[in-house]
Automatic annotation (TrEMBL):
Membrane topology label: Multi-pass membrane protein
Main location per the UniProt record: membrane
Record-given protein name: Alanine:cation symporter family protein
Classification via PANTHER family: AGSS FAMILY TRANSPORTER, SODIUM-ALANINE (PTHR30330), TRANSCRIPTIONAL REGULATOR, LRP FAMILY (PTHR30330:SF3)
Amino acid sequence: MAAAPSGAEAWIAPITNVSDFIWGGTWNGEALPWLSIGEQPIPPMTLILLGIGMYIMFGLRFYPIVKLGSAFKGLFSSRKGEGDGEISPFAALSTALSGQVGTGNLAGVATAIALGGPGAIFWMWITALVGMALAFAEGSLAIRYREKTSDGVYRGGPMTYIMMGLGKKWTWLAIVFCIGTLFSALVTGNSIQANAIADGMNELFGIEEWIGGAITAVLVFIVIIGGIKSIGSVAEKIIPFMAGAYIVMAILALALNFGDLPATFVLIFDGAFNPQAATGGFAGAAIMLAIRAGVARGLFSNEAGQGSTPIAHAVAQTSDPQAQGRMAMLGTFIDTIVICTMTALVMLTVQGDFTAGGQAVEHAWNSDLEGFAMTSGAFAAAFPFEVIGVPVGTLIASIALILFVFTTLLTWSYYGERAITFIYDRVPGSTRGGEKILHMIWRVLWCVVIYLGSTLDLTLVWRMGDIANAAMALPNLLALLLLSGVVFKLAQGQKDAGPTHIADTPEEPNEY
């Protein structure tokens, strides 16, 4: 008689079931009759995310795509802030990007391909394009509705635009969002990232995972102790440089394998639309797997609609909601259309000495490698010459992962801090001093979780991450839908569009 599973193993099956229902529309691996069309399951979260995203995209009259050029133009003039706020618009974008660009770009893309095949990349692109509309809505609302503390600090995010844009009767929705944010912060913003950075340190330097977790926790604490200004300062120095270096490395790898690129794009489009590739028990199973993997990993990477990035954009020194909305949508474009695509193309194109089940295969995505090891292996095949006994491709990919993940840990600590602060401010008698004590407790807890998360089971953590993303995204997507009329007016240049629900309160902030 087989022994009953224990520890993490006992949790994997039920958590996988919940994750599969949210993102795949299945339960116990089977399609649910009431959530299927022709035995093909309909993923609830995919339907909600793409449905609301398309509605806002149409309502904006494809503003994110039409205005993409002006968004890039504004990138070069956003180094200095003009207006109230804590950090420059560029630093706010860098901070948001530091939360977006992380494990999802290097390990998450590999996971998407492993779960849904090359076709998942196409659906990741679609998620990003639709996500640009959601990101614009989030960024513009974050500036239109934000609060100021009694000592003059600006802050905001979905919890604030829910309260100020929809009114006090929607406080429950803001609280639900904050609870989802805390869950998502500790799982996707912390544990998954800590796990990845510990693996990167182990592969690069041979450091044990728990030691890598301890080192990371100390370094993160040194930065986050200074709050959002310290986080923004670090992010705007690391992210542009590291993202640029990573993109250049990927372009070089693809240039060396240029002849195989056409076949790669055939793989992507064929996997996205060819029902004959189905491996499940119903027609179109492979397509649904591709959609589910692409949308889930796309959201994990660019966070559009999830409600995290507007927390960073809310502190930008600007009084123009439309301008910061463009910054926000640019973050989604850079994260997924550029960086995730580079990662995917390298894994699908570069040939090397890989194995699967003991048999030789040409590409990393066909091999037994998983997660970041698949990404690292593909880059190592492109740049095999060694430095200090490590292939240059592995060296650069590992350094990129470590820096991307490090900055993600910084930014998500602030997201969680804002969520727990908002909940605290609903308690009678809350004060600014109490907030600061709570911030310190949260920052210490954050670093303890980094240490613990560095050695967690990866399967369990990724599945919990899918659930955490949905728990945070659903209340935010409802708020975006309810405030969509305001978003459409903000896109037309009406800076004060929509009602402003405020009332005096003895708690922080003094006016809400």
